TrEMBL record:
Protein name, per record: Methyltransferase type 12
Gene3D superfamilies named in the record: Vaccinia Virus protein VP39 (3.40.50.150)
GO MF, one example: methyltransferase activity
BP terms from Gene Ontology: methylation
Transmembrane residue ranges: none
Pfam families recorded: Methyltransf_23
Keywords (A to Z) from UniProt: Methyltransferase, Transferase
Source organism superkingdom: Bacteria
């Protein structure tokens, strides 16, 4: 069996039962380093998953009432931290004329609303019907459509964002290729995904993001660089976050101190649970 993304040789790593009671094998590519599951779920199976309770039940697999104001505030808080670390605000000031943003995998459009409030001509696209309807009811410019099939009528985007979504996509390479083609001159792609850093390897099948069959790929810095090259892109900035210390309400000072130190180390050494990257056209 060979790697779906690069054709490299795979070596078995883990095996885990999914929420569908099927057993999934996770293998690591010896060439690019990506982890991938087998059997790979069909597009119909994945589409059905995101029309169910995925966005309503909080667990390591999904979100509690994703369309709520509480989740909106949480999403925006994380978004602003990522944008600051990506040097977005300085770059934003350098842009002239209309600023066009596309969010691929927008769910209820929380990030779309954030950018629209900053003066961007923002648009979100997703296949999750309930989330799109919830976002539209809040006045957000969202499309319920297949990103790979939708006709954007020649529109180009200054910024394309893809937050915590790539790991869900069997067609990850096709998605990134299409994003590259939709970029305006000088445009950027911001992407976050699960990171097979220290915590993934330490905790194995207990790792909080090893969710099968929802997550079909697990990337790291090296595998994202390999994928970018295949799509005519390059990684110009990368950092990680998530140290295994979750945010707790009313946590004691010593817990917050330990979390602060662990978070800083995870970011510096790219060992955190999540990785954020900036792509530009090569």
């Amino acid at each position: 069996m060979s790697c779906i993304l690069c054709g490299g040789r795979l070596t078995p790593r883990l095996s885990k039962a999914g929420r569908d009671a099927k057993n999934y094998n996770i293998a690591e590519c010896l060439n690019c380093g990506v982890w991938q599951i087998a059997p790979m779920p069909s597009e119909a199976e994945l589409n059905a998953l995101y029309q169910s309770d995925y966005f309503k039940v909080r667990s390591d697999r999904g979100y509690a009432d994703y369309a709520s104001d509480k989740i909106y505030r949480s999403v925006v808080s994380t978004l602003e931290k990522n944008l600051r670390d990506l040097n977005f605000f300085s770059w934003e000031k350098s842009l002239n004329g209309p600023k066009h943003l596309l969010e691929v995998g927008c769910a209820a459009g929380h990030a779309v609303a954030y950018f629209a409030a900053r003066g961007w001509q923002a648009l979100g696209i997703d296949i999750a019907h309930e989330m799109i309807e919830a976002g539209k009811s809040a006045g957000r410019p969202l499309l319920e459509a297949d990103f790979l099939q939708h006709d954007f009528a020649g529109q180009k985007f200054s910024l394309i964002t893809h937050w915590a979504t790539l790991e869900h996509l069997p067609q990850a390479e096709m998605f990134l290729q299409r994003m590259a083609k939709l970029l305006a001159d000088g445009g950027r792609i911001y992407l976050s995904t699960c990171n097979t850093g220290y915590f993934a390897r330490r905790y194995g099948i207990s790792w909080r993001y090893l969710n099968v069959p929802e997550h079909v790929f697990y990337f790291n810095h090296r595998s994202l660089q390999c994928l970018a090259k295949k799509c005519g892109l390059k990684v110009v900035r990368a950092f990680s976050y998530g140290s295994g210390f979750t945010t707790r309400e009313n946590a004691p000072w010593w817990y917050n101190f330990k979390k602060h130190i662990a978070d800083r180390l995870a970011r510096y050494f790219l060992t955190g649970d999540m990785i954020v990257v900036e792509f530009v056209v090569e």
